[in-house]
Amino acid sequence: MDQLGEQLCEAAKSGADTNELRVLIDSGADVSYFDGQGLTPLMHASKHGHAHVVKILLGAGAPWNALSPSNLSAGDFAMEAGHQEAFDTLLNAGIQAELVLGTIARTENKKGNLDVDYLEDRVIFSEDKLMDSENKAVMMAWEKPLMEAHAKAVCSGGGHILNIGFGMGLVDTAIQQYAPVKHTIIEAHPEVYERMLHTGWGEKDNVKIIFGRWQDVLPQLKSYDGIFFDTYGEYYEDLREFHQHLPVLLKPGGIYSFFNGLCGGNAFFHVVYCHLVSLELENLGYSTQLIPLPVKDCLGEEVWEGVKQKYWQLDTYYLPVCQSIQDSE
Ligand SMILES: C[S@@+](CC[C@H](N)C(=O)[O-])C[C@H]1O[C@@H](n2cnc3c(N)ncnc32)[C@H](O)[C@@H]1O
C-alpha cells in the first residue's frame, strides 16, 4: 500500500483544500494511484462533487479516463451523482485530451475491438445477426428500430440517398420504403456483397450497388440528398476521414447521419465522443442534433448470447442528424 496515494485518496474524498492537496502532490503522491477499491483520487473527488479537487488533480496529470473495476470513469461517478461542475470539468478535459491524442477511439473500432483483417475473413449470417470469424457482431437485429430512424432522417428530403455499409440490409430496407429516386449502397465485404446480389438488391430499379471500400470508390460517387455511414472494423479516424468528404458528397440542404456507437461501452466516454464528433463536424460547417432514443427494452441479456463482445451497453442511443450550418440557420 502506498501511504501518500492513500492520503491523496482520502483528501480527494473529503474535499481537502488546495494547500493540503498541493503539499501531498509536491511530496510525490501519485495522482494515478488506485486504492484498495480500485478507485483513483480523481474518482473519489468526482463521486463527492469536489470540483476544485477535480481541477487540481487534472492539472497535476491525473488520467481522466482511468477505469474502476466496474468500468466506471471519474466522469461516470460525477454524472451518476449529478455533480455538474465536476462533470463539466471532466468533460472538458476528456474532449481536450481526445482532440489532441484520440487515445480511446484510435485503439477501439466501432464495435469496440481491433479487426484489421475483417474484410478478408469469413462472415456468418443468421436471422438475428451477422458475425465475423471471431464471433464478434458486425450487425445485430436489435438495431432495426435505430436503422429505421436513421433511414427516416436521411430520407426526409427525398432525392438521391447514399448508404455506406450494407450489413444485414436493415437501413437499406427502411430507405427503400421512402422510395428514393436513387439509392446507392457501398459494400466492401465480398460475402455481404454476394448475399446482396442473391437477395435481389442488384435488380431493384432505383438501387445502385458499388462494391469496394468507401475509401477506394470515392471517385465513383456523386452528391446526395441523404447520406448514412455505418461500417465495421474501422476506427474513429476513418469516420473523421469520411467527414472530410461531406462538403463534396452532401448536397446543399442534405441530411447526413452515422451509426453512433462511439465508445458504446461507457456512458461518460460516449458523452465525450458525442461532443467531440459534433465539434469536428461543426468545424466542417455542419450542425449536429443528437436525438435520444431509448434502447434498454430491446436489449435483454439474451440478445448477446454467442456474441464475443457487447458493443453497446447504454440505455439511450443518440441518433445524429447533421446538416450544413447555413441550412439550419
Ligand atoms: C454494421 S454493418 C452495417 C449495417 C447496416 N447499417 C444495416 O442496417 O444492416 C457494416 C457493414 O459495412 C461494411 N464495411 C466495412 N468496412 C467498409 C468500408 N470501408 N467500405 C464499405 N463498407 C464497409 C461491412 O462489410 C458491413 O457489411
Automatic annotation (TrEMBL):
The keyword Thylakoid does not apply. InterPro entries: Ankyrin_rpt, Arginine_N-MeTrfase_2, RMT2/GAMT_Mtase, RMT2_dom. The keyword DNA damage does not apply. It comes from Carya illinoinensis (Pecan). Signal peptide: none annotated. Residues 111-329 form the RMT2 domain. ANK repeats lie at residues 37-69. This is RMT2 domain-containing protein. Keywords: ANK repeat, Cytoplasm, Methyltransferase, Nucleus, S-adenosyl-L-methionine, Transferase. GO terms for cellular component: cytoplasm; nucleus. GO terms for molecular function: S-adenosylmethionine-dependent methyltransferase activity. One of its GO terms (biological process) is methylation. It is found in: Cytoplasm; Nucleus. Pfam families: Ank_2.
